[in-house]
Amino acid sequence: MSQPQAESRPWWLGFAVILMGGLWIWGSLKLEISDRLSGLGPGAFVLIVGAALVLLGLILLWQIARGERFEPEDTEDALADAPVSYPALASVGLAVFLPALIMPYLGFPITGMISFMLIAWALGSKKVPMNLAIGAVLSAFAWYGFTNLGVQLGAFFPFAG
Amino acid sequence: MTTFDYLMQGFGVALQPMNLLWAFVGCTLGTAIGVLPGIGPALTITLLLPATTLLSPTSAFIIFAGILYGAMYGGSTTSILINTPGESGSMMTALEGNRMARNGRGGAALATAAIGSFVAGTIATGLLTFAAPAISELAFVFGPPEYFALTILAFTSVSAVMGASPVRGFISLFIGLALAVVGLEYNSGQARMTFGMLELMDGIQMTIVLVSLFAIGEILYVASRFNSAAPAVVPIKGKLMMSRQDWSRSWKPWLRGTFLGFPIGALPAGGSEIPTLLSYSIEKRLSKYPQEFGKGAIEGVAGPEAANNSAAAGMLVPLLTLGLPTSATAAVMLAAFQNYGLQPGPTLFTQNPELVWGLIASLYIGNTMLLVLNLPLVGLWVRLLFIPRPQLYAGILIFAMVGVWGISRSWIDLLIMGSLGSLGYLFRVYSFPIAPVLIGLILGPTTELQLRRALQISQGDPTILVSTPISAVLIVVSLLILIGPPLWSFSRRKPVSATAEDS
Fold first, then answer.
1. What's the confidence (pLDDT) of residue B501?
2. A58 shares a domain with A107
3. Of residues B158 and B230, which shows the higher confidence score?
């Protein structure tokens, strides 16, 4: 039986799960007060979860070592065996993370407009002005509609005071 | 009052003009998302959570019920006309339905799918009407050990069955449980896993997790491997009607699919894939025309479609009676209940009869609406497939951001959205199931609470967890689900190696 190539083995997945488990174990050990009646302190459940993650991470490493396959999912708009488009991924990543930086200062409509354009660009629509316009209209519409429904989305233009 | 009286009371609520309008909105949205790729009922309900907070819980759940059923109807349209199941439960429909459409029998395929969905949805809602109150009565005998055991059963069954492997399912589950412990611990008031951030004291909001894993993860994944090919729609030839022979070949599969889908849908991790698959294989075996299977057999559409819709109603049984989500959509609906400060379970039937019975009555109404909406408007639904994907996914992000930013206008929430969205992307790339994360996140606090209560009753003696027959059975079943499959495969492997040694 042919073994999968070394680079197809995502060892880091197992280590990431172990790291997360370790972090939760460490967090549980900082919680010291226990419930005398039940014997179950506030850290007990956290400890159980952390320990389970460490154990599962080790099992995952063992499975990876044995050649476990990790195949991407086929969905309606994505081909599992298609080569990964890193520029598209980066553009969507920017659209998703940028709002954390600019939303408090530029407000929902402008942030939405920029993110809309970035995603549309990532998915092949290179008509930047058109996508900015659609993004602006859709974001402004969403802001107006949801604000009237009682959802607090902040000022339309926070920088305008 | 009898169940029938309660149901009539429910119809009194569901037939109010505004609630009828909400049912129509839900059914329309549900059908649209069933047709559109990348958006499922779970994501749609999540995106609507902020918008529905101003509505009464009854109206909100009438919309959600319409979405749940509508998605099943919409999924069959894409399966038949473009060979692409809008929902996972429509996979078997695509197999035969698209063949029928290619053979010029698309109208009959759509008709048997819609009428079958209606028949199954109505019968299954009837079963839900009478089964749910009985099960909720049973749940009154549940104490902390039973509830703890029940959550353990939900954890093991969902994690072991969903996804590419049980290990990945359990990793997903424990990631959900790990996220669930973030925030102030209710008993001692100590901050857990907040890393000194005040914004995390209230825990990680469910809406953020749902939006991130479903919407952001999907957008990242689609962008990375985008298939820009336009869908090839098979034109519908002839009328959207069934011949006498189609009727005679369809009614039995509808009924079989219904009675197969309902109980399996009610089981943890039962979902809609297993009953539709089973229905397909049963119909293939029982059909008088087995040679037509794979070439466009109407039974292969009628049975699985009925099973699919029936499973959706079955899913509501454990959710409403025990507060137990058995799928991602059920988990999102449970989160919606919690959003309103409601806890599904036996007390919901006594404390909020208007909500529960209004919801159940709206399922009957929604089913009828969907039959009327779907068949005559099939051309309109198909046009939705031509919405340009770049703008569709970009629009989804706008609505996702409304849900996240609208919670507390915190940049940390947006950062969590990006981070968990990246996790959702990795889940898709490495085939980790998402539903266990949600179930861990939602049921984690309940599990911890019931475990603590049980141990307080027994003053720290863990044997209380298996001290009653119900809890013992539930724990044993959980253990069987956990260790059964590996033991089974090990026992099957042994004779093979022995044979190899002999040779």
1. 46
2. no
3. B158
| Residue B459 confidence class, pLDDT cut points 50, 70, 90 | confident
C-alpha–C-alpha distance, residues B127 and B264, integer Å: 13
Answer yes or no: do A35 and A90 share one domain: no
Quick one: A100 and A140 in the same domain?
A: yes
ipTM, 2 dp: 0.92
Confidence of residue A103 (pLDDT cuts 50, 70, 90): very high
Residue B79 contacts residue B60 (beta carbons within 8 Å)? no
Residues of B in contact with A129 (CB under 8 A): none
Q: Using CA atoms, how far apart are residues B45 and B71, in angstroms rounded to an integer?
A: 11
Q: Say how many C-beta atoms besides its own lie within 10 A of residue A6's C-beta.
A: 7
Q: Considering only the beta carbons, identify the residue of B171, B220, B415 that sits closest to A92.
A: B220
Total structural domains within chain A: 2
Say yes or no: A10 and A46 in one domain.
yes
- Answer yes or no: is A16 within a domain: yes
Going by pLDDT thresholds of 50, 70 and 90, the confidence category of residue A71 is confident
- Lookup result for tokens 């849900």: B403
Report if residue A77 sits inside a domain: no
Q: What is the rounded CA–CA span in Å between residue B38 and residue B26?
A: 18
Are A115 and A98 a contacting pair, CB within 8 Å? yes
Parent domain of A58: 6-65
Min mean pLDDT across A111-120, B9-18, B35-44, B494-503 is at B494-503
Amino acid at A126: K
* Spatial separation of the C-alpha atoms in residues A120 and B228, rounded to whole Å: 12
**pTM for the full predicted model:** 0.85
DSSP per position, B22-87: HHHHHHHHHHHHHHSTT--HHHHHHHHHHHHTTS-HHHHHHHHHHHHHHHHHHHHHHHHHHS--SS
Is the pLDDT at B266 greater than 90, yes or no? no
Whose tokens are 């051309």? That residue is B379
Across the interface, whether the CB atoms of A63 and B428 are under 8 A apart is answered no
Record: contact B167-A108, CB cut-off 8 A:
no
